[in-house]
Amino acid sequence: MAVGANKRQRVKHPAIIRAAGLDEDAIQLVPTRDRAAVGAMLKMSGVIDVIVPRGGASLIERVQRESRIPVIAHLEGLCHTYIHRAADPQKARAIVLNAKMRRVSICGATETLLIDRKAKAMLPPILADLRAAGCEVRGDPETLAIAPEAIAATEEDWRTEYLDAILAVRVVDGIAQALEHIDRYGSHHTDAIVTGDEATAERFLREVDSAIVLVNASTQFADGGEFGMGAEIGISTQRLPPRGPVGAAELTTYKYLVRGNGQVRP
Question: Are the C-beta atoms of 50 and 72 separated by less than 8 Å?
Answer without folding.
Answer: yes
